[in-house]
Amino acid sequence: MLAMKHQDSTKLQSPSFLVSFFFLTALLCLGSGCHMANYGQNMSGVRAYQEGQPQVALHHFQQVLASDPNNADAYYNMAATYHTLGKSSKDQTLFQQAESLYNRCLDIDNDHIEANRGLSVLLAETNRSDKAFNLLKNWAISSPQKSDPLVELARLYQESGNQEAAKNHLEQALFLDETNPRIHAALGSLREKAGDPQQALANYQRSLQLNRFQDQLKTKVAMLQQQHGLPAASSNFSTGSNTKMVNLSSPTYR
Fold first, then answer.
1. Mind listing the pLDDT tens digit for each residue in 82-137?
2. What's the pLDDT tens digit per position in 143-160?
3. For a Cys staple, 199 with which of 113, 126, 182, 191, CB 3.0–4.6 Å?
4. 211 CB-near residues (< 8 Å, 6+ apart)
5. Is residue 134 part of a domain?
6. Phi, psi at residue 161, to the nearest 5°?
7. pLDDT of residue 97
8. Residue 114's closest CA among 254, 229, 244?
9. 211 domain residue, yes or no
């Protein structure tokens, strides 16, 4: 196909070129079908996990990796499943499997938000908070244009009791991207814990305007409105869904 750069596009292509073109088109179609199949397997795995069938979920994610060994979402989904199983059984072997899979996902996609979050949570849960902070700080250094590393650092600071550092990181994140719903949700959490329900509600509602597919946040908003007699606001904007189990190891402000 690169040879086309040197050919006159107004001329008929040679038969050999046409054969190559249709062969490539067929491969691209097969690739697309494979992609759709992997998407379906990931979706099936997520559903199985949500229905309390972790082993069935793992089978679906393994099927994805059998056809696409570099599918970051499948590695993340497996890691998150082992992570949850490890927490429920207190089995260190499962924690180790989860950690290995999180790292494999990040080897493929260093900016994978859920894997960075999941691994940082796992490290903190296994008494390695220093490594959790280093992971997220290194992510922020390697991706200075992205707001998500700062959001995750803010979560970690908040959970460690340093509210001021959490606030500073969220303000930096907001400077980078005012349209990230996670920033507004995290700011809402800080404001709520600081005893400012009205500002918290405003942050939560802004987050829902940017992404209305946040059921836990909707519940929180309804509770705040009921508890404090605050007015409701409509949320008319939405974003697409995905095949990642994004809430398996997520912070409490989600």
1. 999 999 999 999 999 999 999 999 999 999 999 999 999 999 999 999 999 999 99
2. 999 999 999 999 999 999
3. 191
4. 181, 237, 238, 239
5. no
6. 95, 0
7. 98
8. 244
9. yes
Q: Which of 108, 39, 124, 45 is nearest to 82 (CA)?
A: 45
Q: Which of 119, 72, 149 is nearest to 249 (CA)?
A: 119
Identify the helix (H) or strand (E) that includes residue 155.
Answer: helix 148-159
How sure is the predictor about 230, in pLDDT bands with cuts at 50, 70 and 90? confident
Q: Let me know if residue 154 belongs to a domain.
A: yes
Quickly list DSSP for 156-214: HHHHTT-HHHHHHHHHHHHHH-TT-HHHHHHHHHHHHHTT-HHHHHHHHHHHHHH----
Q: Which residues of 8-38 are buried (b: 16+ CB within 10 A; e: fewer)?
A: eeeeeeeeeeeeeeeeeeeeeeeeeeeeeeb
Residue-number span of the structural domain to which 155 is assigned: 147-254
| 222 Cβ contact partners less than 8 Å away, ≥ 6 residues apart | none
Q: Would you call 111 helix, strand, or coil by DSSP?
A: coil
Q: How far is CA 176 from CA 132, 137, 139, 144, in A?
A: 23, 16, 15, 9
* Residue 25 confidence class, pLDDT cut points 50, 70, 90: very low
Instruction: Give the CATH number of the domain where residue 204 resides.
Output: 1.25.40.10
Cα–Cα distance measured from residue 153 to residue 80, given in angstroms and rounded to the nearest whole number: 19
Q: Does 24 reside within a domain?
A: no
Domain count along the chain: 1
For all residues of the chain together, what is the average pLDDT?
Answer: 83
Range of weakest confidence among 29-38, 72-81, 136-145: 29-38
Side chain identity, residue 140: A
